[in-house]
Design a protein that fits this description.
about 450 residues, alpha+beta, Cytochrome p450
Length: about 450
């Protein structure tokens, strides 16, 4: 089954036309030949950008020499209103290393197991809300993912007043904020372009600040629950003994919501679509999920091999973060090109995970390629060119959390209902803050 992907732009296009298309959708702004290229150079009046698909160069950027390829300041400018300037998503160097020393233990395997009961409660509540009429999957999974975040982070369901307010403000922010604003190109213009979505960003940060202050009071009083917020706020840097400050904690919660909510919602919506579009895959999944008890345990979910393969293949075809941008810290040579200081280096899971010279049937939905019994060539492709959570020291801190959430959610939904496509047009993938469908993902759920 070949699921939809957007139409690529013509190979030659004027800069202004490319910029307008880029603001609307970063995916359709790219030419088709990038799915077979190892490296491509893009020139603008303001900077040079290099898209890298060569697995050896990608490995150098993410794993072997990450200090030479820090996070791009241009991309960070567009997100400062929401994430602040000290989110682990945008920091570099010593500050980033300190933050990861504090944050990583909260998302270790054993700690994910501690968060599992809250995650399970959110998913069970979502299953109970599955509508009988056709429904838009992205809105449904967005609600579920937000509920998971609030229950695991602050021990409150999404029905909580503040949680609901954050969710609604974030929905408005995503609707108004383009994937790239003018700040990524011209800082002066960025001061004007960055105003878009600032009202919603301020609301979100004020609400998060209230929740952080509320949790701090609980910690001082000795009445705080043992959830992610408490663990992170009380965690000490093993090198200095210092904890995250209140403002810095707001920055981290903002990125947890952006990364943990939007990416999980995107992946699950596409997974449900792929199941509905592939009845044979859905039928093959039933024996595995049909045996789950009403309250499956953490180990039982971890053992769901076929369900995990569906999630992994979904993340290959529809990576929630389709492109990652670094910048060069010094002049260097990449493949056969001299690359100057401050150049943008783009690593695109969207292209890399569909690369015609790496993957067998790159555009096909084939969960079996992630099975242990798959051909060795598939495992080699996965090893070289599969990075939905990035890789190396800057790999997503919540990758294990996200996989557990995705497998659990898909399993309980597939156990409760069968999913089918409706008469609505096929979804059109579009990159906003995450990879979503521009025209929705409409499905029909029928109770089993």
């Amino acid at each position: 089954m070949i699921p939809p992907k957007p139409t690529s732009r013509p190979r030659k296009m004027r800069l202004w036309g490319h910029f307008k298309r880029f603001r609307r959708d970063i995916l359709s702004a790219q030419p088709a030949h990038l799915f077979g290229a190892w490296m491509a150079e893009f020139k603008t009046p303001f900077f040079k950008s290099y898209l890298v698909n060569d697995p050896d160069v990608v490995d150098r950027v993410l794993r072997k020499q990450p200090e030479n390829f820090p996070k791009s300041e241009r991309v960070a400018r567009g997100l400062h209103g929401l994430l602040g300037r000290h989110s682990v998503f945008v920091t570099n160097g010593a500050e980033w290393k300190r933050q990861r020393r504090i944050l990583d233990p909260a998302f270790a395997h054993g700690r994910i197991k501690d968060s599992y009961p809250a995650m399970l409660a959110a998913v069970q509540a979502a299953v109970a809300r599955l509508p009988s009429a056709p429904f838009e999957a992205q809105a449904f999974t967005s609600h579920l993912a937000a509920d998971v975040i609030f229950r695991t982070l602050f021990s409150v369901p999404i029905e909580d007043t503040k949680a609901q307010a954050v969710f609604e403000a974030f929905q408005a922010y995503q609707a108004r904020q383009p994937i790239v604003n003018a700040a990524a190109f011209v800082p002066l213009l960025g001061r004007i372009g960055a105003r878009k979505g600032m009202k919603e960003a301020r609301v979100i940060r004020e609400l998060i600040a209230d929740m952080v202050a509320w949790r701090q009071r609980q910690i001082v009083a000795g009445k705080a629950p043992d959830d992610l917020a408490t663990r992170i706020m009380t965690a000490q840097d093993p090198d200095t003994g210092a904890c995250l400050g209140a403002e810095e904690m707001v920055d981290q919660v903002a990125i947890f919501f952006l990364a943990g909510h939007e990416t999980s919602a995107s992946a699950l919506a596409w997974a449900l679509y792929l199941l509905a579009a592939s009845p044979e895959t859905q039928s093959a999944l039933w024996p595995e999920v049909g045996q789950l008890p009403s309250d499956p345990g953490f180990a039982q979910v971890a053992a769901l091999r076929q369900t995990r393969c569906v999630i992994q293949e979904t993340l290959r075809l529809y990576p929630p973060v389709p492109m990652m941008v670094r910048q060069t810290a010094c002049p260097m040579r990449l493949r056969d090109r001299d690359v100057g200081h401050g150049a943008q280096v783009v690593i695109s899971p969207w292209h890399l995970q569909r690369h015609t010279r790496i993957w067998r049937d790159p555009d096909a939905f084939c969960p079996a390629r992630f099975d242990a019994k798959a051909p060795q060539s598939d495992h080699e492709s996965i090893r070289r060119a599969y990075l939905p959570f990035s890789a190396g020291p800057r790999v997503c801190v919540g990758a294990g959390f996200a996989m557990t959430e995705g497998v659990l959610s898909l399993a309980l939904m597939a156990r409760a209902a069968s999913f089918a496509l409706t008469d609505a047009p096929a979804p059109v993938p579009q990159a906003q803050l995450t990879l979503r469908s521009a025209n929705g993902i409409w499905l029909q759920a029928s109770p089993r």
